[in-house]
Design brief:
By secondary structure, the chain is an alpha+beta fold. The protein has one domain: Alpha-Beta Plaits. The protein is 32% helix and 39% strand. The chain is flat and about 55 Å long.
């Protein structure tokens, strides 16, 4: 079975602020929002792009996706092109891994 290995790196010095860098990571991975009000704690999970795309996380900035999701990821990284470096490689995976990322 064939899949796509995605690697990226964020060029921290290119981001205008820590807020902008966090915005990139939040759009990609999502985040947990915690609000404490009137002695109560409310937690909300905000989803990111990788919550919508089945993937296998290999390392911090490396993951495997099905080929049909490559264009969606490419469009996301093109939006951040001047601040990130993105690479993709076609790889072979076994049947169990293919089930995890829903290879068609």
């Amino acid at each position: 079975m064939r899949a796509i290995l995605i690697t990226f790196s964020a060029k921290s010095s290119k981001f205008n602020s820590a807020y902008e860098r966090n915005q990139f990571y939040r759009e990609l991975y999502g985040w947990k929002q915690i609000i404490i009000r009137n002695y109560r704690r409310y937690e909300y999970q905000k989803s990111g792009l990788m919550d919508e795309i089945p993937h296998i996380k290999v390392d911090k900035s490396v993951f495997i996706v099905a080929r049909n999701n490559l264009e969606r990821l490419r469009m996301f990284f093109n939006k951040w092109d001047d601040k990130t470096r993105f690479s993709s490689f076609e790889i072979k995976i076994n049947k169990e891994e293919a089930k995890t990322i829903k290879v068609e």
